[in-house]
Design a protein that fits this description.
Length: 550
């Protein structure tokens, strides 16, 4: 089988489609069917949210348009928190009616929020959780109560109808500057207040200091968490790792404990500790030398992989906290997720120190039940069948920075150390594509990389072009000394060069998945190699596109 590269790949795809039709499976008819299926996926519940979603779509959405330079900094260029304060005041300041855990950080916020929310629910608390972005429905961003399900459309719509006049007045007062995220945050805080949640776990959207979520007063913050610090949204957060750190440290509140995830560069940790010291805030570090987190192995339960881990925390600095759990079975995989679990556990121990009833058993249960769409997610056989790729192994992960690419590569080494890899990649245009590629390639060379494009937050405006991605991967391969082949036959003829890979324009996402599966199957037939893994990554938006087609 011949696989053309970036140039002329459409001819190959046409031949592949014809051969698949002739073989009687995975046909172009199915491709059309997927499109019809996707467009018909709007359930009755989702249709109930049409007016609310349309309202949000008419507001400024930085997830679609990108974030302005300096917008997340505590400066004249930063977002105007006064706008959010005025909106919340007009709604009766619902954010003052519940205790909150506030989470900032470059990576790991959503996972840490999920771990902590589930720990609290396992203890029997009613929990509100607010995160972003979403995978399938905007309702995923807000969970309420003791079960952790996305808020119902009926609940959101009921509140929206009651506060719409106030929102209209606020939009007019702010001369159209009120944003999609600000209004959605206000809705979430209103729902938490109306539900009378025991506690809310709230993820900052961008940075910390000027984020819309940072209107919670210090007296209402139980714990602040800063997960990791990395180079993402650099321009929006001041241009350097140091300014990013300062922006995220803006969620630390006077006298309230702060949990540091890490690990950080020494001077970055010093910035965070100095801010905590200036706020008289106790510091609890998940990366302290007395803490030990170990991955002992991978086990499969009903086809679902778990990593068996030990989490041992002995914290003796600002607070005295202790926790030991052995053989914890985590569904979220990789060293980075183990660190997120340890960070969430530190926050739970902080709450326990404040008088919240949280047992060791609830911590273990909460950690073990946690899973998230699009984070180290292996599709089930049923889901793979629905994609028309029976027998394939597909891993979805929304990694999109060099740090998360490294975490993904390390996780694959743990779960699939012998498998041939084919990456299917789509990214937003404002990411560091070459650094992302370099981190993935440095750990293990894939058989092939298929480049594609998907909508970012419902729009192609921020999607990286194929040529931009291709150049980044070419540069990364050149730096690492990896040869690139544009023809599969060339690679096989040239003594199976172990230091070469295919770089292809995969066409659409579904075409890319099919081509990737065909490459793995062809390789297995020709070389008797171990089964391969299709890894879909580069953004949560490409992950969403796959999951929404199921």
């Amino acid at each position: 089988m011949k696989f053309s590269g970036i140039v002329g790949n459409h001819r190959y795809l046409h031949r592949l489609h014809k051969s698949l039709i002739a073989a009687g499976n995975r046909t172009l008819v199915n491709d059309i069917g997927f499109k019809h299926k996707f467009s018909g996926l709007i359930s009755e519940e989702e249709s109930e949210l049409k007016e609310f979603n349309d309202y949000l779509d008419n507001l400024k959405n930085h997830e679609k348009s990108g974030v302005p330079k300096g917008a997340g900094t505590d400066s004249d260029d930063g977002f105007d928190l006064g706008r959010m304060k005025r909106l919340m005041q007009s709604l009766g300041n619902p954010q003052s009616k519940f205790k909150a855990v506030h989470i900032a950080g470059t990576k790991g916020k959503g996972s840490t929020a999920a771990f902590l929310s589930n720990i609290l629910r396992a203890q029997g608390y009613s929990v509100g959780c607010y995160t972003s972005p979403h995978i399938k429905t905007i309702r995923e961003r807000i969970t309420l109560g003791r079960l952790g399900d996305p808020v119902s459309a009926k609940t959101v719509n009921s509140l929206f109808q009651r506060i719409k006049l106030v929102l209209d007045q606020a939009v007019q007062l702010e001369k159209g500057h009120l944003s999609h995220f600000e209004v959605l945050t206000a809705v979430a805080f209103n729902l938490f207040a109306e539900e009378n949640v025991d506690i809310a776990v709230i993820e900052a959207g961008l940075g910390g200091a000027r984020d819309a979520t940072n209107i919670i007063s210090g007296s209402d913050v139980a714990v602040s968490i800063i997960t990791t610090i990395g180079e993402e949204h650099v321009a929006a957060l001041g241009g350097s790792l140091e300014t990013i750190t300062v922006a995220k440290s803006g969620i630390i509140k006077h006298g309230r404990p702060v949990v540091l995830g890490g690990p950080y560069l020494p001077h970055i940790e010093l910035i965070l500790r100095n801010k905590a010291s200036s706020c008289c805030s106790p510091v609890i570090s998940a990366s302290d030398p007395g803490n030990t987190s170990v991955i002992k192995g991978i086990t499969n339960v009903s086809g679902i992989p778990f990593q068996v881990s030990d989490i041992i925390l002995h914290i003796n600095r600002d607070l005295q906290l202790c926790f030991e759990a052995y053989d914890v079975k985590l569904r979220l995989l990789g060293w980075h997720q183990l660190q997120n679990a340890a960070t969430a556990t530190c926050a739970a121990l902080c709450l326990r120190d404040q008088g919240w009833r949280i047992s060791d058993g609830s911590i273990r249960s909460g950690l073990e039940i946690t899973h998230l769409l699009g984070r180290s997610q292996f599709l089930t056989s049923e889901e793979i069948e629905a994609l028309g790729l029976p027998g394939a192994t597909i891993l979805l992960d929304g990694a999109h920075t060099k740090e998360s690419a490294k975490a993904l590569a390390d996780m694959i080494q743990i779960t699939s150390p012998e498998a041939a890899l084919v990456f299917v990649v789509a990214m937003a245009s404002d990411k560091d594509h070459q650094a992302f590629a370099t981190e993935l390639l440095a750990v293990r060379r894939p058989v092939a990389v298929l480049l594609t494009e998907v909508s970012i937050a419902g729009d192609r405006y921020r999607s990286a072009s194929l040529s931009l991605l291709r150049d980044a991967w070419m540069e990364a391969c050149n730096d690492l000394g990896i040869k690139i082949y544009e023809e599969e036959e060339d690679r096989l003829k040239k003594h199976n060069d172990g230091n070469a890979m295919l770089l292809l324009n995969g066409g659409s996402l579904m075409e890319s998945l099919r081509v990737g599966d065909e490459i793995i199957q062809s390789r297995s037939r020709d070389t008797a190699a171990a089964a391969g893994v299709l890894v879909v990554t580069g953004s949560l938006h490409i992950v969403s596109s796959v999951l929404c087609s199921l």
